[in-house]
From TrEMBL:
It catalyses: glycerol + ATP = sn-glycerol 3-phosphate + ADP + H(+). One of its GO terms (cellular component) is cytosol. It comes from Nesterenkonia aurantiaca. GO terms for biological process: glycerol catabolic process; glycerol-3-phosphate metabolic process. This is Glycerol kinase.
């Protein structure tokens, strides 16, 4: 019997392949960053061919580091940056345009056009999402409307569309030589095209967006055998058996299988997900309703989500755009060099504001600057922005649930930052808990694939793999917490109404 599962984690800044054993421990991994392309202000793109090339490379790296072959791998799981949109020619396998990334804001005019009839919540009852630049639907429409020849090809049935899970799966299973064009319910729920109740594409919404149904992938569960890796690939004949969008995968990897289970992932952005069971809960406080997962023929499990566009990418911006630091870990060192933020607040509304505000016209600000302020204060304020934004979406989740969360399970790259995690506990007023395996996104995809092929029996067995690594307890007094939150909310209001007709 094969002893391991491999997960492909196609993320916003890099692609990774991680091999897991039966206990959910990491055996080996490979990782490679891809280029972040910024053609214009507000535009964010990736090269889909670079992503596919990197995917093949990191699979090879992960296998070679642990001296494994395809015979050691029971199944492949895939997780991905969700709303990032790829449109490609099914006959050549070539993308017609770069992937448009979930952070991209170029489609605001399309949002405004569609919202003119029924407002931004025009489709929310069906799909759980407001009209926003964030989701895949407006991105695929932009490609069809703006790339020469794309619409004619799409209407002729020659183009395929998908998030990066569909792109990777299609190539992995053969591409132009019989590759399967599929997505899972979690990714489908981020397009604006899927009815949450029927789990099928909605023809009325597709007509409103003017997107041909023939482009769309077939919707599958999150855990079943979709096909096998093509004979030309290293993992040939290995079943591809699990797909989960990255945030749902992290929830699955955190073993949040019960109603009320929750996690917060600290990555390029931050994403709080609360499991609502088999009930579709409509948020009254700015959260999204989404599919959490669906295991084979079982009923779907739903979730509420608080999506924050910019957290880890703010640190990346300080490093790459401003040259403020040379490496991301320097931020923690700088932040610890000062006692507090010196009155500075950074609101990184680079892609507008996501949950709970949904203000597409907002843009980033740094407020509270005085001659007293130094690099340490700005570094600290940049870290604190992540914690403040998390507090706001947690408040929204508590309001929707009617019950306050008692602690918060966390994962993602930024949870290695002790200063941030302590401030997070302080500003929330509840404990913050980190698991021993923090690569929960890849782990969740591995779990979904393993369940489909019998590598693991059920979710009860998976839950026994979860264990606590570290817990941070709140130390800030209530008066100081309230003061900080008041100033943060004041700073947020300064981002509003920046973009208008002649400001891009």
């Amino acid at each position: 019997m094969s002893k391991y599962i491999i997960a492909i984690d196609q993320g916003t800044t890099s692609t990774r392949a991680i091999v897991f054993d039966h206990s959910g421990n990491i055996v080996s991994s490979g990782q490679k960053e891809h280029e972040q392309i910024f053609p214009k202000p507000g535009w964010v793109e990736h090269d889909p061919m670079e992503i596919w090339t990197n995917t093949r490379e990191v699979i090879g790296n992960a296998l070679s580091k642990s001296n494994l072959t395809r015979h050691d791998i029971a199944a492949v799981g895939i997780t991905n940056q969700r709303e990032t949109t790829v449109v490609w020619d099914k006959n050549t396998g070539e993308p017609v345009y770069n992937a448009i990334v979930w952070q991209d804001t170029r489609t605001q005019p399309i949002v405004d056009e569609l919202a003119a009839d029924g407002g931004v919540e025009r489709f929310k009852k069906k799909v759980g999402l407001p009209l926003a630049t964030y989701f895949s639907g407006t991105k695929v429409k932009w490609i069809l409307d703006n790339v020469e020849g794309a619409r004619a090809k799409a209407e002729a049935g020659d183009l395929l569309f998908g998030n990066t899970d569909s792109w990777v799966t299609w190539h992995l299973t053969g591409g132009t030589e019989g590759g399967v064009h599929i997505t899972d319910v979690t990714n489908a729920s981020r397009t604006m095209f899927m009815d949450l109740e029927t789990l099928s594409w909605d023809d009325e919404i597709l007509a409103a967006f003017d997107v041909p149904r023939s482009m769309l992938p077939e919707i599958k569960s999150s855990s079943e055998v979709y096909g096998k890796v093509h004979t030309a690939q290293l993992l040939r004949e290995t079943p591809v058996a699990g797909i989960l969008g990255d945030q749902q995968a992290a929830t699955f990897g955190q073993a949040a299988f019960e109603k009320g289970g929750a996690k917060n992932t600290y990555g390029t952005g931050n994403f709080l997900i609360v499991n609502t069971g088999e009930e579709i809960v409509r948020s009254q406080n700015g959260l999204l309703t989404t599919v959490c997962y669906k295991l084979g023929d079982a009923k779907p499990v739903y979730a509420l989500e608080g999506s924050i566009a910019v957290t880890g990418s703010l640190i990346q911006w300080l490093r790459d755009n401003l040259g403020f630091i040379k490496s991301a870990p320097e931020v923690e060192t700088l932040a610890k060099s000062v006692e507090d933020n010196g009155g500075v607040y950074v609101v990184p509304a680079f892609s507008g504001l996501f949950a709970p505000y949904w203000r597409g016209e907002a843009r980033g600000v740094i407020v509270g600057l005085t001659r007293f302020v130094n690099k340490g204060h700005i570094a600290r304020a940049a870290l604190e922005a992540t914690a403040f934004q998390t507090r706001e979406v947690l408040d929204a989740a508590n309001a929707d649930a009617g019950v306050d969360m008692e602690d918060l399970r966390v994962d993602g790259g930024m949870v290695a930052n002790d200063a941030l995690m302590q401030f997070q506990a302080d500003i929330l007023g509840i404990p913050v808990v980190r698991p021993k395996v923090t690569e929960t996104t890849a782990l969740g995809a591995a779990y979904a694939a393993g369940l489909a092929v019998g590598f693991w029996r059920d979710t009860d067995e998976l839950a026994t793999n979860w264990s606590e690594d570290k817990r941070w307890l709140p130390q800030m007094d209530t008066a100081e917490r309230d003061r900080q939150l008041r100033l943060w909310k004041k700073a947020v209001t300064r981002t509003f109404d920046w973009v208008d007709e002649d400001v891009k």
